[in-house]
Prior knowledge:
- By secondary structure, the chain is an alpha/beta fold.
- Helix content is 42%, strand content 11%.
- A four-stranded parallel sheet has the order 2-1-5-6, sandwiched between helices. It has a two-stranded parallel ribbon with strand order 3-4.
Amino acid sequence: MRKTSFEKMTPKELINAQKKKSIVYLPVGSMEWHGPHMSMGMDTKNASKIAEICAQTIGGVVFPPLYVGTETPRNKETLVKVGFKGTENIIGMDFPNNSLKSMYWPPELFEAVMREQLKHLVSMKYRMIVIVNGHGAKKQIEILNQLSEEYVKCTDTCIKNIMVLFEDCGVGIGHAGLAETAIMQAVCPEGVDLSELPEKKEKLYNVEFAIVDNETFEKGPNDDYSVRYDPRDATPELGRKLIDFAVNKCVEIIDTAYRNLK
């Protein structure tokens, strides 16, 4: 297998790889609560794996993943959708029942770190930087889009910012639910322990476990504010299918953009 890890390559190897395909992938995610059944590095593990496969498929090198992510307080509308009263002060997925807090960075610090990282990669003359983002926080996506647009305007580097959980993957996606659990089983099986969840006959309530479907965030809850897409139904086989789907989507986006570079 071709070497693609930036930190494991000599200067000569990096230069030769850049001559063949001038792409560098920058995986970024978070260190965030993903239910009692999953490790907190899920977002970044997912992004890193997809970046590695993309590099092997179409070329380029993968920069070391950044386990940094940002979040902001939930607004009243979102809190009510999830099952809270709407008056609580809750940042991201740090619900009151969680046994650990997430490691959210302040937005301005996250922006500063990402800005500096992109500046260094631009200075290395890569024609394309692909930010492979595994954390779906609106503020994080907003910052990454803003930085991408900013650098595209003032440099010759093309920057693509891709969120690697795709709504059309065929499975209901969400936070720490079926899709993410299956992906983690495939990427990092030691990071999942379904025995930490109650038996299948018991429902998983959003407020109790901080496991929430995107459908709930976007449209609203079901009748009892429970999880629709149950992480206890996850399998590594499903995870591999979801990874393949995401890789195919990413490869299409990246390959098309690279071929259109002037």
